[in-house]
Design brief:
Blueprint: H1 2-9, H2 14-46, H3 51-99, H4 103-109, H5 111-136, H6 138-153, H7 158-177, H8 180-202, H9 204-209, H10 213-239, H11 241-265, H12 271-312, E1 334-341, E2 351-358, E3 363-368, H13 374-379, E4 389-394, E5 397-398, H14 404-409, E6 411-414, E7 423-424, H15 425-429, H16 438-447, H17 451-456, E8 464-465, H18 474-486, E9 492-496, H19 504-517, E10 522-526, H20 530-533, E11 538-543, E12 546-551, H21 553-559, H22 561-575
Parallel strand pairs: 3-10, 3-11, 6-9, 9-10
Antiparallel strand pairs: 1-2, 1-4, 4-5, 7-8, 11-12
C-alpha cells in the first residue's frame, strides 16, 4: 500500500525528484572525491614536503566541500517542498474521501480513527518521504561509490568490507523486523486514546453529573498505559540500532588500522591509501546508518500507509450518479415504494416494505417506539443511506438518479442530534444560506422561536457559538438548527425529532409559525410526542420497521392499536 500511495501522490512532483537526485548525486561524488585528495596530500605533499602541492590540493578540497554543502542544502530544500506538497495532497485526498462517506462508512470507521489517519498517519508517511529525499537517494550512491573507491585504494582489505556490511545489515534487519508489529499496535492504541479522550471531553457534563471522574481517569490511564507499554517496547528495539551501528563502526576502524598497518609494514600499502580506505569504509557504514534512519521510519510509515489506504480504497455505499438528473418535473412529491433497509452484517432489516406518499402542501408525521426505524426512514430521503430494497422517489425520479446538489438543494434538514459549528449564530445560520441578510436571519429566528433569546445576548447575531453549540442549551441549539433549515426556504422539510427539547408551549407556537412558511412545501416530521403530530395530514405509525398504521389522528384512533397505545400512554402520563 505504501508503494501504491507513493506512486499515485508523488507522480506530480517528478521534476523535484529528478532535481533532488541530481543534487544528491553531485554531493555524493564530491564526498567520495575528498578522501582521494586527502590521500594525495599525505603521500605526495607531506612525505615530499611540497607546501605548494598541499595548498593547491587543499584549495581544491575546500571547493569540493563547498559544492557538496550547496548540493545538500538545495537537495533538502527541493525534497522538503515535494514532501510537504505530497502530505498536503494525501491529507486532502483522505479528507475528501471521508467527506464522501455515507453514515454507514462513518460509523464503520468512527470519528477518532478518521481524525488520526488524516493527521498522525499522514504525517508518518510524509516524514518518510522527506527522509527518503534527504537520505535514501544519497545512501545507495554513497555505499556503492564507497565500495568502488575503497577497492580502488587497496584490494587487499576488501574482505573487511565484505564481512562488515552484511553483518551490519543482518543486525539491522533483525531489529526492525521486531519493530513492525509494535508500530501497528501503537497506531491502534493511539486510536483508542483519541476515542477515550474525545468521549470524555464531549461528555464532561455527564461525567461530572454522575461523579465518574475517578472511573474515567482510570479508563484513560489504562488506555494511556497500554499505548506507553507498546511505545516503550518499540523504543527498546529502536534504541538498539545506534549502539549496534556504532559498535560495528568502531570495530571496523580498529580492524582497518590493524590489518592496514600490517600491509604498510609489508610495503604493500601507503599511509595515505590507508587513511583513504578508512574514510571510505566510514562512508560506507554511514550510508548504512542513513539507511537505518529510513528503516526506523519505514515500518511505522508502512503501517500508517495501510491505514490511509483503507480509507482511500473504501468505496462509499452512496454513490452519486454519473449523469444525475438536475431538473425535476414536479414539486417535491416524495414516495416510498416497498422500501427496505438493512445495515451491513445485520441479521434483521431495520425497515421492511415501507410504502407511502408525501405530497406538497401536506405534513406527514412518522411516529413509533424507540428503535422502530423512524430516523433511518427519514435519512433515506437525502441519501444519508441508500435503501437496500425498493426505491425512494422524489418528483417521480429515484433519489439514486438525482444529482446530489439538486437533491440537497431542495431539502431543509434538521437532524435528531443537533450540531452547531464553532463561530457565531450568524455563521451557523449562513450554513443554510451563505448570502443570507440580517433581516432573513432574524425572520428565520422569529419563526423558530429563537429571536427572543438571541436578542437578549449582548452580541446578538454575532454571539459566539462553541464547537457543537455546547455553550447553548438543548432547546436553544434545536431552535437555531430549525432556523438554519428555514432560512434556505426549501421545498422539502425534514424534521427528525426536532422538537423534543422544546416545552409544550414553545412547541405549539413553533408549529403554528411554521404553517404559513411550509404551506406549499412537503413536510415530514419524526416525533415522539403525539401532541406534536396530531394535526398532521397523515401519520405513519412504525413498529419493528414496518408500517402498522397510516392515516390521520382520528382515523388511527379507530384502526391502529399501536397508535392508540402510544396515545394512551402519553396522555396517561400527562394526566398523572
Amino acid at each position: 500500500m505504501l508503494v501504491k500511495i507513493l506512486r499515485r501522490y508523488l507522480a506530480p512532483y517528478k521534476r523535484e525528484i529528478v532535481i533532488v537526485s541530481i543534487l544528491q548525486l553531485a554531493a555524493t561524488i564530491a564526498a567520495l572525491y575528498l578522501p582521494t585528495l586527502n590521500a594525495d596530500i599525505i603521500d605526495n605533499g607531506v612525505v615530499r614536503g611540497d607546501t605548494d602541492y598541499i595548498m593547491r590540493t587543499g584549495g581544491i578540497m575546500l571547493g569540493v566541500t563547498f559544492l557538496q554543502v550547496i548540493g545538500q542544502i538545495l537537495a533538502v530544500y527541493f525534497g522538503a517542498r515535494a514532501a510537504m506538497a505530497f502530505g498536503r495532497d494525501l491529507r486532502s485526498a483522505t479528507f475528501h474521501r471521508a467527506m464522501g462517506f455515507s453514515s454507514r462508512e462513518l460509523g464503520q470507521f468512527g470519528a477518532p480513527t478518521l481524525l488520526n489517519r488524516n493527521t498522525n498517519d499522514v504525517q508518518q508517511v510524509q516524514m518518510m518521504v522527506l527522509m527518503s529525499f534527504t537520505l535514501l537517494v544519497a545512501a545507495p550512491m554513497m555505499m556503492v561509490g564507497g565500495v568502488i573507491m575503497a577497492l580502488r585504494e587497496d584490494v587487499g582489505l576488501s574482505w573487511l568490507v565484505a564481512a562488515i556490511v552484511p553483518l551490519l545489515a543482518i543486525i539491522i534487519w533483525f531489529i526492525t523486523s521486531h519493530m513492525v508489529p509494535g508500530f501497528r499496535k501503537m497506531q491502534k492504541r493511539l486510536d483508542t486514546v483519541n476515542k477515550v479522550l474525545r468521549e470524555q471531553i464531549t461528555g464532561i457534563r455527564v461525567v461530572r453529573a454522575f461523579v465518574r471522574e475517578p472511573y474515567e481517569t482510570e479508563r484513560f490511564g489504562q488506555a494511556n498505559t497500554e499505548l506507553t507499554d507498546v511505545a516503550i517496547n518499540v523504543g527498546r528495539w529502536m534504541a538498539g540500532i545506534f549502539p549496534a551501528v556504532m559498535f560495528i563502526m568502531n570495530i571496523s576502524t580498529v580492524a582497518v588500522i590493524w590489518f592496514g598497518g600490517l600491509r604498510i609494514d609489508a610495503g604493500a600499502m601507503q599511509v595515505g591509501s590507508l587513511f583513504a580506505f578508512l574514510s571510505y569504509l566510514i562512508q560506507i557504514l554511514m550510508a548504512v546508518m542513513m539507511g537505518t534512519f529510513m528503516l526506523m521510519m519505514l515500518p511505522r510509515a508502512s503501517v500508517s500507509a495501510d491505514r490511509i489506504g483503507e480509507v482511500l480504497e473504501t468505496e462509499p455505499s452512496v454513490v452519486p450518479p454519473e449523469h444525475g438528473v438536475t431538473h425535476l418535473p414536479r414539486r417535491s412529491t416524495i414516495e416510498f415504494k416497498r422500501v427496505g433497509f438493512r445495515y451491513s452484517g445485520a441479521t434483521h432489516p431495520v425497515l421492511h416494505d415501507i410504502s407511502f406518499v408525501a405530497e406538497p402542501g401536506q405534513t406527514t408525521a412518522v411516529i413509533g417506539s424507540t428503535g422502530a426505524g423512524k430516523s433511518t426512514l427519514i435519512n433515506l430521503i437525502p441519501r444519508l443511506f441508500d435503501a437496500t430494497e425498493g426505491t425512494v422517489i422524489v418528483d417521480g425520479v429515484d433519489v439514486r438518479d438525482i444529482d446530489p446538489d439538486t437533491l440537497w438543494g431542495r431539502i431543509g434538514y434538521v437532524p435528531q442530534k443537533v450540531y452547531l459549528f464553532s463561530g457565531t449564530i450568524a455563521s451557523n445560520l449562513r450554513y443554510g444560506k451563505p448570502d443570507a441578510t440580517e433581516d432573513e436571519m432574524w425572520r428565520a429566528l422569529e419563526i423558530a422561536q429563537a429571536k427572543d433569546f438571541v436578542e437578549a445576548l449582548p452580541e446578538g447575531l454575532e454571539a459566539p457559538v462553541a464547537q457543537g453549540g455546547t455553550n447553548l442549551s438543548g432547546g436553544q441549539r434545536q431552535r437555531i438548527s430549525i432556523a438554519r433549515a428555514l432560512i434556505r426556504k426549501p421545498e422539502i422539510y425534514l424534521f427528525d425529532d426536532s422538537f423534543s427539547a422544546l416545552d409544550v408551549a414553545t412547541d405549539a407556537r413553533l408549529r403554528q409559525a411554521l404553517e404559513p412558511v411550509t404551506a406549499d412545501a412537503t413536510v415530514i416530521i419524526v416525533a415522539q410526542r403525539v401532541a406534536t403530530i396530531m394535526d398532521a395530514d397523515q401519520i405513519v405509525v412504525l413498529e419493528n420497521g414496518s408500517i402498522v398504521g397510516l392515516g390521520t389522528h382520528d382515523e388511527l384512533l379507530q384502526t391502529s392499536p399501536t397508535y392508540v397505545e402510544i396515545v394512551e400512554s402519553q396522555f396517561a402520563v400527562e394526566a398523572s
